[in-house]
Amino acid sequence: MTDFLSSLIEQNPVPSENSNVKVSIETNYIPEHSNELEKRYVFSYTITITNNTEESVKLLTRYWLITDANEDTSTVAGEGVIGKQPVIPPSKSFIYTSGCVLKTPVGTMQGHYQMLTEHNKNIQVEIPVFRLALPNILN
Questions:
Q1: Which of 2, 32, 62, 139 is 20 to 30 Å from the Cα of 83, by its Cα?
Q2: What CATH number is given to the structural domain containing 121?
Q3: Dihedral sign, CA of 99, 135, 11, 18?
Q4: Distance between the two ends of the chain, CA-based, in angstroms?
Q5: Residue 117 in domain
Q6: Could you count the other beta carbons within 10 Å of the beta carbon of residue 24?
Q7: Each residue of 67-90: pLDDT tens digit?
Q8: Degrees (nearest 5) of the Cα angle 80, 63, 128?
């Protein structure tokens, strides 16, 4: 087993708390859209962003670093998420689901959001490393 794959096995998704904005992630493998012979592994991820500050925050941009088990990387950057730049009021959450296609049955994603507070303060909210993996592949 490669060192990279070993490190994936040891990783546990954990919430990230930066600037009192919490990011949590749930992932799912989507077999009906995947094709192992074509090395196409499709995953969905559901992100919950919870604003624990005393002012609204607006999600401006996202940045993702995606790494597969071959250590091939790709990046995704752009405005908002799923075509939106949500404003998240204090003590509220924004939840969205998106997807990722890998060439290997295991990989990781990590990144950050750039947000703007009501008082025009820019904050960067880290998205912790989380694993994308076929069910039971790492057991």
A1: 32
A2: 2.60.40.1470
A3: positive
A4: 13
A5: yes
A6: 19
A7: 999 999 999 999 999 999 999 999
A8: 110
* 139 in any annotated domain: no
Three-class DSSP labels, the chain: CCHHHHHHHHCCCCCEEECCEEEEEEEEECHHHCEHHHCEEEEEEEEEEEECCCCCEEEEEEEEEEEECCCCEEEEEEECECCECCEECCCCEEEEEEEEEECCCEEEEEEEEEEEECCCCEEEEEEEEEEEECCCCCC
Rounded Cα gap, residues 132 and 30, in angstroms: 11
Number of domains in the chain: 1
Q: Report CA-CA distances (Å) from 4 to 13, 106, 118, 129, 135.
A: 16, 10, 41, 13, 19
